[in-house]
Amino acid sequence: MKQFLGLVCLVGALAGLAPTQAGTDLAAELKQAQAALAAGDYDKAYPQYLEYAEKGNALAQFTLAMFHQLGWGGRPQDPAQACAWHEKAAAADIPASSHFFAEC
Questions:
Q1: Segments of 31-72 assigned E as strands
Q2: How far, rounded to the nearest angstrom, does the alpha carbon of residue 54 sit from its chain's CA centroid?
Q3: Which of 16, 20, 87, 88 is buried most, with the most CB atoms less than 10 Å from its CB?
């Protein structure tokens, strides 16, 4: 549980580091998804993050990477999928994803 809460805080902190991308407020887009994740509603959060990640939201890409890296919501851990999402988020200058992608 501590690991989960720490990562939720990390996602929030990253929102402060990269608030815009191509004129879009990344954190604002993800408010509903972040609320679902914070409440532990993984089944609701995952598709919302996926929708924005596929549109290029780097914070959503980072969060999806963490879903796959840590197996959030009972998903099996999938290092290859996690690395693919970290690569996309790292390319958009998300520092934590740059770190995790380097580990890939």
A1: none
A2: 12
A3: 88
Q: What angle do CA 52, 88, 27 make, to 5 degrees?
A: 40
Per residue in 43-75, pLDDT tens? 999 999 999 999 999 999 999 999 999 999 999
Query: Could you give the 3-state DSSP secondary structure of residue 35?
Result: helix
Q: What are phi and psi of 20, to 5 degrees?
A: -135, 150
Whose tokens are 């390319």? That residue is 91
pTM equals 0.78
Q: How many CB atoms lie within 10 A of CB 99?
A: 11
Count, residues in the chain: 104
Amino acid (one-letter) located at 49: Y
